[in-house]
Amino acid sequence: MRAQVVIIGGGPSGLLLGQLLHRAGIEAVVLERKTRDYVLGRVRAGVLETGLVRLMEEAGVVGRLHREGFVHDGTQIAVGGEMFHIDFKALTGTPVIVYGQTEVTRDLYDARAVAGARTEFEVEHVVIHDADTDRPYVTYDQHGDRKRIDCDFIAGCDGFHGVSRQTIPLNVRREYEKTYPFGWLGVLSETPPVHDELIYANSDRGFALCSMRNAHLSRYYIQCALSDHPEDWTDKAFWTELKRRIPAEMAERLETGPAIEKSIAPLRSFVTEPMRWGRLFLCGDAAHIVPPTGAKGLNTAASDVNYLYRGLVRYYQDGDSEGIDRYSEKALLRVWKAERFSWWFSGLLHRYPHQSAFDLKMQQADLAFLRDNESQQRAFAENYVGLPY
Ligand SMILES: Cc1cc2nc3c(=O)[nH]c(=O)nc-3n(C[C@H](O)[C@H](O)[C@H](O)COP(=O)(O)OP(=O)(O)OC[C@H]3O[C@@H](n4cnc5c(N)ncnc54)[C@H](O)[C@@H]3O)c2cc1C
């Protein structure tokens, strides 16, 4: 079997790349380890930069996003019981859209199905062969059969734990990593959001985030110990702790309900360089991870897709390889800026073990500078709504 591009991973980066390539007349097969329902059951990102929305428009899958997505012109930052607003629209002219990653993924799967594009689910033991030659191929097992696809290029969109990054030899790959000494306990509940914008809260008891998926579905997070397990936290304990970390006015207004999903995510900053090895290109979480503070994970995956998609189109339509040759360099330039913003914003809001009185004063001064200084707010807003591609 043959395809122009094999995409490993049917998460948002693989699906978006696949749909864009399909619209450009480039045949791409997506290989996904899990079932479609499993992928759609994962509750993750929810804040979309305009760059990602434009790519969804280009991919022809934006109808529901525009109908059901919520335009957020700004965000709230809470410190010591007070809140201040950062007005993205006024500072940058650009809002963000709140629309769940699950919905993005669902729209892309539906579009693939309508287009008759090939997605292989429940593939196992994916192996990338000869990526450093002109004749790469991929083998995998599916329902007991061993299969092979020959191709021109391979897009490694298989997330942090996938095979693609591991295929790049250790003497070529350089990895940069920072782990954080806490996690985020997240709860999804069928309750109206406490505020019409996200609230990022710095409190003496640790970080909290009030987020949402739609008018009836809220997503809340609190910083927790890495040793915690979701089952350690009853719903009641979660709501009580959340209320202690947000301003009293918000705590009073907060509607609580049973958690329909509860999970703990560790926080990590990670980048691998280069993002290309021969004819293998890494995209999204396969190449980099950010802590979720600032909602850059999915959005940075989308910017990789943008560079790779345009590079492949140039290669196939004009015979020009400049775009794919410079893919890693261009993608990494933007990746590191997103890493910096996510790392900085995490540092601004969380309580760290062994944080000294001096460290806390620095955090408070940084927050006060953000609250009081328009230039700092503009820099924040530019990063939050997404740096240009
Ligand atoms: C709990 C949590 C909360 C998050 N919250 C936010 C947020 O609020 N904002 C934000 O921007 N980002 C957030 N993120 C990050 C965001 O979800 C990711 O950046 C995004 O999913 C990256 O998409 P991806 O397609 O690159 O990788 P993934 O979504 O990881 O998709 C990779 C796909 O590859 C498949 N796969 C893996 N290995 C193989 C294999 N060997 N063969 C075939 N298929 C394989 C996987 O099953 C998966 O479907 C969050 C992440 C987590 C875990």
Description:
The protein has 389 residues and is of the alpha+beta class. The protein has two domains: 227 residues, FAD/NAD(P)-binding domain (3-Layer(bba) Sandwich), CATH 3.50.50; 123 residues, D-Amino Acid Oxidase, Chain A, domain 2 (2-Layer Sandwich). The chain contains 14 helices and 20 strands. Helix 1 links the parallel strand 1 and strand 2. It is globular and about 60 Å long. The mean pLDDT is 97. The structure holds flavin-adenine dinucleotide. The site of flavin-adenine dinucleotide has 34 residues, from helix 1, strand 9 and helix 10.
Question: Helices and strands in order, then pairings?
Answer:
Blueprint: E1 5-8, H1 12-23, E2 28-31, H2 36-40, E3 47-48, H3 50-58, H4 63-68, E4 70-72, E5 74-79, E6 82-87, H5 88-92, E7 96-98, H6 101-115, E8 119-120, E9 123-129, E10 137-142, E11 145-150, E12 153-156, H7 164-167, E13 174-189, E14 199-202, E15 208-214, E16 217-224, H8 235-245, H9 248-253, E17 259-273, E18 276-277, E19 280-282, E20 288-289, H10 297-318, H11 322-325, H12 327-349, H13 357-372, H14 374-385
Helix pairs in contact: 1-6, 1-10, 10-12, 13-14
Flavin-adenine dinucleotide binds next to helix 1, strand 9 and helix 10.
Q: How would you describe the oligomerization state of the chains in this entry?
A: single chain
| Computed structural class | alpha+beta
Q: What is the name of the CATH topology of the largest domain?
A: FAD/NAD(P)-binding domain
How much of the residues is beta strand, in percent? 25-35%
